[in-house]
Amino acid sequence: MSALLYIVAGIVAIYALRHYWFTLNRLFGEQRHPYIDITIADWPATTVFIAAHNEEKVITHILEALLEVDYPADKLTIMPVNDRSKDRTREIIDQFVARYPGRIKPFHRTEGKPGKAAALMDATKLVSTPIILVFDADYIPGQGLIKQLVAPFFDAEVGAVMGRVVPLNVGTNLLTRLLDLERSAGYQVDQQARMNLGLVPQYGGTVGGVRRSALEAVGGWRDDTLAEDTDVTYRLLLGGWKMVYQNRSECYEEVPETWAMRVRQIMRWAKGHNQAMARYTWALFCNRQVSVAERLDGLALLGIYVIAPILLAGWILAIIAFYIGDVSLSGIMIMLSLAAYSTMGNFAAFFEIAAATRLDGSRNRILLLPFAMFAFLVSLISVSRATFSQLNPFKSGTVVWDKTERFRTGPTAP
Amino acid sequence: MSAFIVLLLLALVLFTLPLLPAVRELVRKTDATPLSVTRDHNQDIRHFARAFYQDMLTGMGRLTLIRAPAQTTQHGRLADGSRFQVVGFRSLPLMTPREKARATSDSQILSTATLTLTPGVSYSKAIYSEGNIRGGPSARYFALLGREDIQLGRNSVITDWAQARSNLVIGQHSKIHGRVAAGGSIDIGNGSHFKRAQAPHLRLGQPLATGPTTQFPPRQSLTLAGAINSAGGRLLFDGDLRIPPGAEVVTDLVVRGNLYIGANARIVGAVKAHGRVTLETQAVVDGSVVSPDLIIFGDFCSARGPLISETKIYLAKGTVIGSMKFPTTITAPTIVAEPGVTTHGTLWARIDGEVLDIAAP
Q: How much of chain B exceeds pLDDT 70, in percent?
């Protein structure tokens, strides 16, 4: 049993070191933003997909924002991908189409496989632009965002680009405030560090885009996955393409306001990510076209959600081992090791949060960090549940569009 | 039993103690607004000039300028207490004896017509002219906005920004610490340093008297072999790649080593190398040139752009980047140009841009 415990501790220690490495790089390392200065260029034709499923509360805001962006209008196609909405989404989109003739090309999807990936797959067949950007309907892009997201595609090696997501409904409750901290850490530290270090920034499926030729070269969108973004990230990586993260390309989003929604969201992410892990771990391990550093980081990223049940198992094993006295070390060494492991290992992600709030220039929101422990526990259990449910051979593998409820009622931005 | 309860309470206190600041912040919400995302920011180089012009209109009214008597200079104070003067037609900015002694001007200067500024003076406030601005040598400017041309003498220094509606000429050995823009063209003299410059037409250093003298035979179409991946419209090469002189290659190229593009060769597509990119004489890239390493353009090379380096870009004489129809961006921490380089669009040197002080042939 103690051997098993040490294996768990070893795996967690690897992830903890990775978190520290990223955090220290972000705080003290050289920061890479090579494409952010591109303000003038012969901009390529671009399509912006707005993934929409029952989005009557938010679709107006993103359409208004996209109509105001600083991008040549003749090179920008705005395509709301309205996947069988049952509310007023279609009506609102059609009103915009009538009001702005030639600017918006709607795709009202009424049949076919459900899910965002399937909808994107069908929508991609309708456009011919070399660049495709994707936004979820609750996002509010700023004026300069489209150029910022397109700029990296001037680099012939770039297959996908990802911008930074910033929660808009931060002050609603404890959950939204904790998600704000979590998003900060994920983007401000984790993604940017991977960009700095030439590793694998992840295309996140929204506030980002793909090069159409690269996407087609790796087989297009897959409609049999719950996380088409992670799936595309890894197929592009295996195909020799680079992902770029643009930390200064920021966009507001709406985060879940209820714990039930949050649990559903993170379970969906975990399942999708684990699907990608099962599909691409071996292929990535063996791929000689990908650098060793990218392979190691890519493998670590693939396993990120599996760490939750491993960590949970580690805690249970530690308790059992303690009570049955099954430990091969003793005395002060084991106490120190366990203390170091518990403080530095399990909670390394919190250091990312602290660093991120500092980099963001936030002042008092870091005071909420102790509460992050509760969100961490909820995520740990939810992700573990999702992972274990995937091991059930009798469970149906049907992909559905797991809708995130919208709460927006007031103004669109501060 | 009581000891157990005390222990339990103590544990509870120790557990909740770190949560107290968190609970306080949760209740008070002192830092619960969304992080700032500037939604209308589009990185326009003219942002500061526009803001200044708007402030000027609201602060004192452009009507003041139009009504300013010819041949006189009026002065006063703005709401914030700072001094300003309105310089009339054929008049000069006023300087107090103290300012003259220190060779500084601390007034915001607004002019109704062509404005001539005294050489060697340090102007610490923004200067605006409805007509041209002519600055003498060795002057230092905080900000300049000209409705027509701006012409600055040698050894000038711009500490913040300058914008001309038409043309901007910056004399030799000048230093531009901020951003400069023009609606027509910008000339930056030999030996000058710059950070960011934007215009439809930028001439770096003394223009060349003659074009390329070497004549090359017509280019030969070339199909490259040895790519490790050719999917998605680009060829991916491991290690270094040399494009032979006079070859024409129609594809995007990604090279994981150094890329050498031979004299008069042409790439119809974009190029990216993990190592150095070197273009020899009169080579052409009909697309972007990207490298985390050094990018070197030989004599009379051209590229459609953008040019992106994470270290340095060197542009030899006669290089042309972008075109009037397709302006583009050149960005690197360091940009070095020989005299006789033409670019169109934006030049952005994060650390330092330099026009070498060598005589153009």
A: 89
Are A192 and A138 in contact, with CB atoms under 8 Å apart? no
- What's the token pair of residue B74? 């009026």
Q: How many Å from the N-terminal Cα to the C-terminal Cα in chain A?
A: 54
User: Which residue, among B296, B286, B250, B292, has the nearest Cα to B272 in the 3D structure?
Assistant: B292
Per DSSP, A73 falls in state: G
How many whole angstroms separate alpha carbon A9 and alpha carbon A1?
Answer: 12
Q: How far apart are CA A301 and CA A233, in angstroms?
A: 11
User: Over the stretch A306-325, which tens digit does the pLDDT of each residue have?
Assistant: 988 888 888 788 778 777 77
Tell me if A39 and B35 make a contact (CB, 8 A cut-off).
no
CB B68 within 8 A of CB B86: yes
Number of other residues whose CB lies within 10 A of the CB of residue B80: 6
Encoded tokens for A178:
């904790």
Radius of gyration of chain B (CA): 28
- Chain A hits for B304, Cβ within 8 Å: 42
**What pLDDT digit, counting tens, does each position of B187-221 carry?**
999 999 999 999 999 999 998 888 887 888 889 99
- For the record, the structure tokens of B329 come out as 């961006």
Tell me how far apart the alpha carbons of residues A281 and A284 are, in angstroms, rounded to a whole number. Answer: 5
Domain A34-297 grouped into CATH 3.90.550.10: yes
Nearest CA in chain B to A146: B42
What rounded mean pLDDT belongs to chain A?
87
